[in-house]
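Exam revision sheet. Question 4 asks you to relate a sequence to its structure. Input first:
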Amino acid sequence: MFRFFKSKKKVSFHEQLFELQKIGIELNPILNKELILAEYSNEEFEKEPYLLLLIALGSELELNGNYINCSNEIWYLDTECIEDTGDYVLIAERIKDLSKNYLDLKNIKDFVDIENQVASISFTLDERDYCWKLEVNDDWIDEKIIVMFNDLLEIKNTDKRVYILDLGGQDCLVGIFSRAQVKQLNNLLNKYKFVSL
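Answer key, structure tokens:
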């Protein structure tokens, strides 16, 4: 008796980008596909369909001396990134961008003192002031900040939430999506999945 196995269909970079665009994850309009393909080959994108492209889209590229987010819908985050005051401000600003102004945070300030184990972030949202104390664990981000941002999204009466795809180390992908978007995304991915904290 013969067994026939279907060979895994290769999905090209262009097909992957098209499928992600249908979900709402797009290449930053000031960049072009060739810049992404200069970083990775088409063959590399085909090895782990969608995952490498999401990482590439979540990263920054240098353009004319400036670092530009490759996409405004996905973020490739190194969670070992808290070293000093200002680091949580950068995180909050990126979350604000990903939220498409659902979280229109203003007056964002933080304080980080690793040595004395003190960290906090404050901001204004919808004319209400927030101040969150954060845990210090060397230079690791306090992941409960994601849970707290999700609580704010819930107050905004939207089904969008912050979703994380853990890459198995200190790196992860972060996006603010609806349940429908996450279902579509997870259907495209193999072993890795986006979850909400």
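Marking note for examiners. The CA atoms of residues 23 and 181 lie 6 Å apart.
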